[in-house]
Amino acid sequence: MTPILEIRDLHARISGGREIVKGISLTVNPGEVHAIMGPNGAGKSTLSSILAGKPGYEVTAGSVTYLGQDLLALAADERARAGVFLAFQYPVELPGVNNMYFLRTAMNAARRGRGEPELDAAQTLRAVRAKLKLLDIGEDLLQRPVNLGFSGGEKKRNEIFQMAMLEPRLAILDETDSGLDIDALRAVSNGVNKLRDPGRAIVMITHYQRLLDYIVPDHVHVLSEGRIVASGDKTLATELESRGYAHLGEAA
Amino acid sequence: MSANPVVTALRRVFEMCAEAAREPTWLTRRRAAAMTRFIELGVPGRGDEAWRFTDLRPLTAARAEPLTVADTGIDPDLLAAHRLPGAAHRIVVLNGRVRPELSAIGDLPDGVWLGSAADAITHRPDLAEAAFDNADTLGAQPFASLNAALFTDGFVLAIDPDVTLKFPVEILYLGDASGPCVYHVRNTILAGAGSQATVVETYAGTGASWTNAVTAIEVGESAKLSHVKIQAEDNAAIHFAMTRVRLAAASLYDGFVLITGARLSRQDIQVAMTGEAANLILNGAWLLRGDQEATLAPAVDHQSPGGQTSELLKGVLGDHAHGVFLGSVMVREGADGTNARQLNRNLLTSPTARVDTKPELTIYADEVKCGHGATVGDLDEAALFYLLSRGIDPVTARHMLIEAFAAEVFDTAALVPDVDAHARRYLQAWLDQEGAPA
């Protein structure tokens, strides 16, 4: 079985800055959900930025392979069309860009990439309606500019909704639980759980164990000072909750 | 000053025209006074505050010549490409002259006169004398004075009180200049008290012409005028236009201006609120690339109490383009209760594009609410990455962000559907030419 994601001894930094990721190795197979936990400054956001191809980061050593191909050789938009999806910690507001038009453009970019015919406005609307319920999103949200004036919960829901529409092979959820109240967390988690699929891998990056009560991972990794210092099953997260990051960092 | 070769050429043209013309005495006199004023003022230089950001070098003496070659007619496809999609009272101005055989004025409601300036002078001297006043020969607007001296044609729209025009009046200016030449067009809109109308002017000429237009507008008490101006001339053209608006009590001038054309252009919009509680809405955008330079200069004069001004003007500038915004709001003594907002926002899509923005606010009245602001920014990197991260390619992503930035003025203007579709067509045409990232 080809892993969906294979990270080998990855070292990276913010361009021109000091090294933040200091040798991460990780293999994610189809159908698996991995949680990467760690305190602030551990390198979680740098890792997700590098996987998504955000400018301003530099890989200094190591490799990232996605479905057998060199992920780092692809531009950000090429990665997305190849099936990599990043749910943003802080989804960006796009004034003047209609949500529906945005979704259609993104979906058609992926379809063109796969050699499939593009969807017209009516077909997009049908596809979108079918998945609105999944995230408990009102149709009015689609007629508004992307994320503009959305509440924190609406923004995060909209991220997972985009994931549902784009059907990635690899989804990276960056602090998807941050800033959510319990109802919003439940709605977002339900959405993610419905998107679990034998062909899809999900990497959740989070500071808190709370999210893992709702989306139960197959594997948990603890990131500290740019390295994975502990890996285990979901019980690792519980242990972390009771004993704290500091303890695990020392144990490694 | 008369040593300026442009002035010398214009003076020669004026003498030639004056000899050939057989016009009413009042007009001959006004033309002569206006020419005298133009010669006094001369072609402005960098020393003139109002023109100090503008590079007038493209304005050569060759551009001062009237078009001498015979008209060869017009490509019907060109006409179709630029006219309003729906029903309209249409006048086509070709190479500076109204062409009745290309125009389609159609049935006008009773109490509306619409025709060429030349027709008005011949058949409606009463109207023409009021329409072509010489107020601008007194001010310091050299090109408006020049226009008053040398105008060849234009349109006159006069609407009686309480008449509503159901369909827009459309003025389409086409040109097929094979070489440098000038069109001085002079237009007048007299909207009677309580009247309502929409006027759409589209300038879409080709060639290295110089358009020097003046549009004088009177909006009567409680009248509403929607005025859309699209300037999409050839990238070799020069376009100077002065729109002068007088607003009576409780009237509304709802203006929209879109500039995508011309190598060098300047659009002045001077609004005088002579009556109480008058309303000015002005939305617009200029979209420039290459080495285009455009100045947008709206000047609002709140002379009476209770006036409202709302301006949103945006610029998108790529390559080496240069945009100039000279916006002024004057609130005179006694114009209490004025409410004025003026906003100029600019998006630079290339490191070599430039913008000079100078919003000005002068207040001599009490209890006024006035705000003004200007911003200049680049494409938002975070927004760009968000689009890329959803699989949208960089060229499309840039288009989407530029379009979103410019579209705000269309959304705010909320033009009637046919006119909105017409205006957005020029936005789309501009976006379609937007190439790969710089």
Principal-axes geometry of chain A comes out as globular
Distance linking N and C termini of chain A: 30 Å
Query: From the structure provided, what is the oligomeric state, counting identical versus distinct chains?
Result: heterodimer
The strand line-up of the biggest sheet of chain A is 6-7-8-3-9-10
Element-level helix/strand string of chain A: EEEHEEHEHHHEHEHEEH
Residue share in β-strands of chain A: 25-35%
The largest interface is:
A-B, 27 and 24 residues
* Dominant shape of chain B: globular
Query: Whole-number radius of gyration of chain B?
Result: 21 Å
Name the CATH homologous superfamily of chain A.
Answer: P-loop containing nucleotide triphosphate hydrolases
For the sheet with most strands of chain B, the description reads: 10 strands, mixed
Q: Can you list the strand order of the major beta sheet of chain B?
A: 2-1-5-7-9-11-13-15-17-19
Whole-number total of structural domains of chain A: 1
The count of strands of chain B amounts to 19
Distance from N terminus to C terminus of chain B (CA atoms, Å) equals 42 Å
What radius of gyration of chain A results from the CA coordinates? 18 Å
The helical percent of chain B reads: 10-25%
- Stretches with pLDDT under 50, minimum 5 residues of chain A: none
**Would you report the number of β strands of chain A?**
10
Strand content of chain B: 35-45%
